[in-house]
Amino acid sequence: MSFQRILITSVVVTGGLFLSACATGPDTPVVSESYQCGQLDVVTTTLGEGDQLAVDYLGNRLLLNQTVSASGARYQAQDDDETYFWSKGERALFNVKGQSYPECLQAGALELPFEATGNEPFWHVRVAHQQLVLNRLDDTSEPEVIAVETTAANHHGREFRGELDGQELTLKVARQLCEDTMSGSQFPAQVRLELNGEVYEGCGGDPQRLFRGVEWIVEDLAGAGIIDSSRMTVEFLDENRLAGRASCNRYGGQYKLTAEGVSFSSLFSTRMACAPALMNQEQRFLELMADVKQASIGQHGELVLTTSGGEKIKAFQSTENKGNP
């Protein structure tokens, strides 16, 4: 089998480093990996002798150079140590000009530690480093620490097995949207705990992974649609920061995501003036945002923000090339 060397030419576009490629003579194989960084899909491709990495996301392609790291494989943009992709097995960290994306996971992989909870009866597990800690409200004893091994690992999820007081324990995790039976909160994984013939179902994973990593474009504002050619966006950033466009002005603030729901606080915006219709829409949007109590993913993958009065903001993921944040 013959392979071709990919020659990379760097091009500066809107402040970002993108790539154009052409093919020439034989060289080492190209290796590609797919990741999900929250809602963001990322594909990486090793180039040349493995000393360069192309990172593709939302139509962007970054060219990074390998740097020395204590563990894993770290690639960094030239003259920019705040733009890097650092992979460690099936997990990776992705940072672009100081903006950190959620931990990047290959298909089926779990963030560590991984936590899951179920109801009726209540139970909670925490998995890290081949060890599972089990808590149960109906048990007055201390949390039970169980050594587990990974018995299944594929793009659907993971399975762990161990033994508790002579009884087999199995924890199965599937990367599928899960809704808590009591709070209605959503999680990125469905979980099944089996112990001594009993089966307990619950949800697990970090809920922020459902919302972070992409820009959401508002398509409906409390059932009234939006003004043609106007733009309202929502973006959940690192450190619980919120940002976006409100129609005329850009806005920012903080978000807090709990088992009870979500809330936005410390909202602020720029002060540019636009046409009256846009300003009215912007005011309505910001008023609704300040009253949001729930965030969920709809059946078509849309973001649904619901206020205390039941009014909804609906938004879909942007597929546009934003360039650098």
In short:
This protein is mostly beta strands. The chain has one helix at residues 276-290, and strands at residues 6-13, 16-23, 31-37, 40-47, 52-57, 60-67, 73-77, 80-88, 91-96, 99-100, 104-105, 114-118, 123-128, 131-136, 144-154, 157-164, 167-174, 178-179, 186-187, 189-195, 198-204, 216-221, 233-236, 241-245, 250-258, 261-269, 292-297, 303-307, 312-317.
Structure in words:
The chain is mainly β. It has three domains: 6-105, Lipocalin, CATH 2.40.128; 114-205, Beta Barrel (Lipocalin), CATH 2.40.128; 209-317, Lipocalin (Beta Barrel). It contains one helix and 29 strands. The strands form five sheets. An eight-stranded antiparallel beta barrel has the order 3-4-5-6-7-8-9-11. It has an eight-stranded antiparallel barrel with strand order 12-13-14-15-16-17-20-21. Strand 4 (40-47) and strand 5 form a beta hairpin. The chain is flat, with a radius of gyration of 23 Å.
Mean pLDDT: 90
General shape: flat
CATH topology of the largest domain: Lipocalin
In percent, how helical is the residue content? under 10%
SS elements, strand count:
29
What's the alpha carbon Rg, rounded to whole Å?
A: 23 Å
Q: Low-confidence runs (pLDDT<50, min 5 residues)?
A: 1-26
Order of helices and strands: EEEEEEEEEEEEEEEEEEEEEEEEEEHEEE
How big a fraction of the residues is strand? Answer: over 45%
CATH first level of the largest domain = Mainly Beta
Q: How many structurally independent domains?
A: 3
Secondary structural class: mainly beta
Count of runs of 4 or more consecutive helical residues: 1
Terminal residue distance:
40 Å
For the largest sheet, list the strands in their spatial order: 3-4-5-6-7-8-9-11
CATH architecture of the largest domain: Beta Barrel
Q: How many strands, which pairing sense, and closed or not: the largest β-sheet?
A: 8 strands, antiparallel, barrel
